[in-house]
User: Fold these one by one.
Assistant:
Number 1:
Amino acid sequence: MNRFLLPLAAFLVLVGFLAVGLNLNPREVPSPLVGKPAPAFELPQLAATDKRFAPKDMQGKVWLLNVWASWCVSCRQEHPLLVELGKTGIVPIVGLNYKDQRADGLGWLRRHGDPYLLSAFDLDGRVGIDYGVYGVPETYVIDKAGTIRYKQIGPVTPEALEQKILPLVKELQR
Amino acid sequence: MSKPFTTETQRHGGFRLLNVFVFLCALCVSVVNTGFAKDAAPLAEDEAVEQRLNVIAEELRCLVCQNESLAGSRADLAQDLRREVRKLIKDGKTDAEVREFMVSRYGDFILYRPPVKSTTWLLWGGPFLLLGAGITALIVYLRRRGRTVAQAGAEHLSIEEQKRAAALLAEEDKK
C-alpha cells in the first residue's frame, strides 16, 4: 500500500503545480513601476495642439492614466466603461494616445465618446516605453504624490473597476 | 524535329529581342540592388553597434510575442525597443546599463536569464535540490537492496542447491 501512496502523492503535487500554472495569465507581467514615481514626460495634447501635458500638472490629485489608440481593438471593449466613469467624475482620466495618428485618434474619440480630461499625444511611443507599455490598453492609477499605485494590463473590466481600481482610488483620495 | 525555318532577318530580330531582354533584366537587378543598398545602409554604417544590439537583444524577451527574442521579433514594440537600445549604445551605455533600462520598465520577465535573488533562488537551486534528492534516494535504495540480496543468498540456498550451482558454474568454466 505504502509504495503506491508515495507516487500518488507526488503525482497530486505535480497536478497541483500544473493546475496553478495553467491558470496564470502569461500576458500579465507584474510591472516594476508599481510603487515608483510615474516617469516624467512632456507631450503635446491630442486635441489642443498648442498645449502640452506633463504628469506633474496632476500633482495633488488621484488620477488614471489610460493608454489607448484608435488601432487598438481591445480599447473598444473597455471604452464604454471609461465613458461611464468619466461621467461620474469620481476620478479624472488622462489618455495617452499611443503611436496613433492625430486625425485617427480624434475621429475615434468623436465616434466612441471622450471620457478624458485630455489626451497626451505619444506619436513615436517613447513615453509608452518609459511606462513599460507592451499591450494597449493599459491603465495606471497614480496617487496625489505622483506615485504609480496600480497597473491594469489589458482592458479595464467591470470587475477590475469595482473590486480594484475604484476602492483604491477612494482610499488614495482620503 | 525539323530544322527551324527562319530567315536571316528573323534571326537578327531574335537576337535584338534577346539583347533588349538581357538589358531589361540587368536594369531590374541594378534597381533592386540599389533598393537593398538603401535599406541596408544604416547596418553597414554602424556594424559594431548592430552587433552589440544583436547580442543584447538575443537575451531579451519580446513582451508582445513572448517566445521570441527582441532580436528576432517583428512586432512593432520590438522594433521600437531595438531603436531605443541602438540609441543607448550610441550614447555610450554599457550592456548592463541597457539591460537595467529594460528591467526598470518591463521587469525581470524581459530577461531570458533571470537574475539570482531571494525570489528566484528556488528556480536556480531547485534542479540541484532535485538532483540531490534523487541521488540520496538512489543510494538508500541500492544499500537496502544490497542487504536483502545478501540475506536472500545466505538464507535460501540449501546445501543441495549450492552443490547444483557449483556444478553449473564448473560446467560453464569448461566451455
Number 2:
Amino acid sequence: MKIMLVDDSKTMRNIQKAVLAQLGHSDIVEACDGQDALSKVQAAKPDLLLVDWNMPNMDGLSFVKAFRQTNKATPIIMVTTEAEKGRVIEAIKAGVNNYVVKPFTPDLLSQRIQETLAKKAASAA
Amino acid sequence: MDPNYIKPFITSIQNVFSTMLQLPVSIGEPTIKSGQQPFDVSGIIGMSGDVTGSVVLSFPRDCAERVVALFCGQQVAFETSDFNDAIGELVNMVSGNAKALFPAGRKVSISCPSVVVGAKHSVARQSDVPCIQIPCGTDCGDFVIEIAIKSKPAADPAAATNAAASVKA
C-alpha cells in the first residue's frame, strides 16, 4: 500500500511516517504543498492521502478539490490545526473522508488511518 | 485586550506541548509587554479576518534545542532548516488550536509560520496593538508566548451575545 503525505512541515511528515511505520506502512510519497502533490499524485497513484490544510503555494483544501475532479475513490484524511466545525464541514464537502486535528497522539492518528482504510476495503468488497 | 482571546492560547499551548511532547507547561502571570526582551529563536504566525495581529513563541537557545529534540524524537542541529521547521510547526499548532477556541462566530485565518533565529533578537510589532506576554515554564526551560491581536467588533449583536454566553458556559 502506498501512502502520500502532503504537509509543508518536514517535522510533521516525519511524525506521520513514524506512525505509519508502526502500522507496517513504509511505501510513502511526500509532497511539501498542494502544488507539489498535484504534480506527483498521478504518477504515484497512492492508496491513501494525508493532507495538511495551511500550506504555501496551494493549500490542502484547494488540492483536495482539484484531486477530486479526477479521483473520487482514493481516501483522504485531512490532518490540520484547523479545528473549527465550519472548517471540518468545508473539508468533508470538498471530498475529505476523515479528519484529524493537530495536535494528535500517535494512537489517534493510527485509529483514523485504520478506520479510513477499513471503510475503503468494505466499500470495495 | 479581551481575555476571551488570551485564554485560548493558554489552553492551546498546554494541549500542544502535553500531546506532542509529553511536556507539561506551567503558565505564569500574563503581562502587557513593555520594552524588548531578547531571545534566540522565535516562531511567528499572523492572524487575519475577524481577529488580526501576530502570535510569537520565543525561546532561549537551550530551551528551544530541548523542546525541538522532544518534538522530533531526536537531537536536531540548531540553525538548520529542520530545526526552524519544528519551531514553525509548534507555533502553527498553538495558534491554530487557539483560534478554534475564540468566541463563536469569529472567522480567522492564520498565515504559514515564519521563524527568526539569531542571538538576542527581538520581534517588533504594530505599535497600536498591545502585546500580552505570557511566561511559560517547562522542564526544558522557560519561554514566552506573545500575543498582539485585536478583534473586529461582531457585526451581529445577537452573535456577540451568543458568543459571550458560550464563553461563560
